[in-house]
Amino acid sequence: MGYKVYDVSMTIHEEMAVYKNKAEKKPEIEVIQDFDTSPARESRIHLDVHTGTHVDAPLHMLPDGGTMKTLEIEKLTGPCRLLDLTHVTGGIGRADLEGVGIREGDFVLLKTRNSDREDFDFEFVFLSQDGAEYLTSIGVRGVGIDALGIERGQPGHPTHKTLFRAGILIVEGLRLKDVPVGEYFLTAVPIKLRDTEAAPARVLLFEGLSVAD
């Protein structure tokens, strides 16, 4: 095949970790018909659009922001860079991101200690406003993080708003524990919802795959 695939998406199931362990955010999966009464099995799922690995749209934090249908799918496909930030214990700031060679147009994935846990950590590592402003100044096309939120405890949600206002895409809930630091080809494909502020996504990283392939 010539390349390796890393599936960095969370598995959706009823016992999975959800933001702040809120019961109302847990997915519900119902079998609506099975082989005891039908020749085929069918299931129905009740799902928060921010479940597991997902892509946020600007409407999530900006009242006049665009919905999922306004996102450029091209930005969610292409080269990306996975950075090692496992040493950070709080907010990822400018000082943590300087000197690692982030370039304009990069899609940056932030690998932190969050990937070592499957439960929800109320003290999860996040991207601070300072870090978001630095990435905006460079002109990255997107940011992904291995937490169910890209910020924590910042009044007014400045990290989201800084990135959204700069047209930078946000992917949350990545699972990066088993992925080495380096460059990959990214496909982050959200469910094709139209008028929502987020959508669950299947995110794959390809190692050794170029656009020419």
TrEMBL record:
Pathway(s) annotated for this protein in UniProt: Amino-acid degradation; L-tryptophan degradation via kynurenine pathway; L-kynurenine from L-tryptophan: step 2/2
UniProt-listed Pfam families: Cyclase
Cofactor: Zn(2+)
Domain of life: Bacteria
Molecular function terms from GO: arylformamidase activity; metal ion binding
A biological-process GO annotation: L-tryptophan catabolic process to kynurenine
Extent of the signal sequence: none
Keywords attached to this entry: Hydrolase, Metal-binding, Tryptophan catabolism, Zinc
Catalytic activity, reaction form: N-formyl-L-kynurenine + H2O = L-kynurenine + formate + H(+)
Enzyme Commission (EC) number: 3.5.1.9
PANTHER family, per database record: CYCLASE-LIKE PROTEIN 2
Function: Catalyzes the hydrolysis of N-formyl-L-kynurenine to L-kynurenine, the second step in the kynurenine pathway of tryptophan degradation.
Subunit (UniProt): Homodimer.
Name recorded for this polypeptide: Kynurenine formamidase
Organism: Melghirimyces profundicolus
